[in-house]
Amino acid sequence: MLQFLKYVLATFVGIILFLFLSFFILAGIGSMFSSEEKVVLEDKSVLKLDLNQPIQEVGVDNPLSEFGLPFTGEETVVGLKDILDALKSAQNDDKIKGIYLKTEGPEAGWATLEEIRNQLLEFKKSKKFVVTYGETYSEKGYYIASVADKIYLNPAGGIEWNGLSAEYSFFKGTFDKLEIKPLVFRVGEFKSAIEMFSRQDMSEASKKQSTELIGAINNNFLKNISASRSIPVDELKNLADSLAVENPKSALKYKFITNLGYQDELETALRKELKVATDKSISYVGVRKYLDGSSSTEKGDFNKRVAVLVAEGEITSGDGGDQNIGSDKFVKELKEIRENDKIKAVVIRINSPGGSALASDVMWREIQITAKKKPVIASMSDVAASGGYYMAMGCDTIVAQPNTITGSIGIFGLIFNVTDFMNNKLGITFDGVGTSPHADWPTATREMTEFEKATIQKSVNEGYETFTRKAAEGRKMPVEKLKSLAQGRVWSGVEAKQNGLVDVLGGVDDAIKIAAKAAKLGEGDYRVRYYPEKKKPLDEMINKFMGDNEEQATNKALGDLAPYVKMYKKLMNMGGMQTRMPFELVIR
């Protein structure tokens, strides 16, 4: 007994010491952050824009990632807002002489890349240089690189130029083997999100909408590259069809790049451009450090603000988290914005494939209430589809990029019958009692009756009628015309502008200007504030320390299988009716 008490006491003391040391370590790190000296930019500096990392609407600084500790995470998530702010500031900063792009394989959607690309083109009006070097370029990477004055490609590298594609995974065969029966309830011929459970290939309707969608995005892609590189669109198409751009020499031959060379050769050219001695290092500055050291002051009246409320991720009820939009948290944030008299207009920045129909409707209602008090403008990022479009349709004006994925106005419900799987595979059976024939409905542990299935379908139908009616009211078009554009079909921003689902083609800055004008604010007479506010590095580190960083652990443990585990988790979270676009639509 005495030995046991000694072990208990030792364990208790160890825990106390661990907590004590952890407190002082965190306090020390916090002190390090708070006492960090302001960055001083050198003359002849070059802004280094590294896009080979995850890009979200609002970034997450992680300066401790280089230490590799278990609670610090692995990488910094760069914010689109930070990138755009840095480019705007650098354009008029005498100490910044140009930009060095790292854009081999950006981890971002097409609309995000469009925003960055357009701001780079604006930067070039300053007559400062933009150069890029890559060992390889993906098509997304080359889309950004194509604006550069000098495009270097490693002589042993490569460039992807074979057209865009969209691939879907189908799990019907898996469910058949497991004897799990998916019960699907949907409205909309094009609501193809559920086909992954009911089919082994794409339906004709799904192929039609996907072909037209990537075709529209590809046309915008080719048009802009053609303008930047002075290569006719037809020639760009033929080169992709023939796989003629097969190596660095052919990329140079067809004027995709300006130079074959290594990074040291690019830097030699940069030193000459900057008039820097050959034995001196080039003064590169990253986005985060540049913004820390930027001397630009905010302009405009502090009492006249335009709020940009970021809504990024899947839509769920409750508070949500960093990777999704929780309706409760969104409503609370928007209500505070609405009641703040210093905020004169609102931009809802949407980057979401949808999710819970109920949560989408709750947020739509709060947007409607806010729109009665002050202008509310929707700004669509990479995707604002289904539940994402549900949010946008409550706004006064909808702004989208040409390659934004939007629409998908439709609803579905999904329930899995696991009776045979549990019985035949695991030997588990179910039985029970109830006060009425349908007391356990809806259920996954018995075959539902036709009456019960019809009741669910009726609910889905009613949800679709609500969605389309509210969308028609928001777009000020007849319901029948709206329904002809609905049926769960996705559209590019260009197509959505043509058919009336979107009002203006442009980025978040365009939406801010529209919001300011609607609030009768003059140019330079207001300030812009993003909500929720960006997390401080110490706060983010503590969150990672307190949490288990589950997603990173999953990615490390499962590698290529991680996306399928994430898909399983999504299935488990699909309670109630869903307003979602086709799953995991990745265009590359």
From TrEMBL:
UniProt keyword Transferase present: no
The family this protein is said to belong to: Belongs to the peptidase S49 family.
Keyword Hydrolase recorded: yes
Cleavable signal peptide: none
Domain Peptidase S49: from-to ranges: 123-276, 371-521
Name of this protein: Protease-4
Organism whose genome encodes this protein: Dyadobacter soli
Keywords, sorted A to Z: Hydrolase, Membrane, Protease, Serine protease, Transmembrane, Transmembrane helix
Active-site feature positions: K191 (proton donor/acceptor), S386 (nucleophile)
Pfam families on file: Peptidase_S49
Subcellular location field: Membrane
UniProt superkingdom: Bacteria
Any one GO biological process: signal peptide processing
A single Gene Ontology CC term: membrane
UniProt GO MF annotations: serine-type peptidase activity
InterPro entries linked: ClpP/crotonase-like_dom_sf (IPR029045), Pept_S49_pIV (IPR004634), Pept_S49_SppA (IPR004635), Peptidase_S49 (IPR002142), S49_SppA_67K_type_N (IPR047217), S49_SppA_C (IPR047272)
Segments traversing the membrane: 7-33
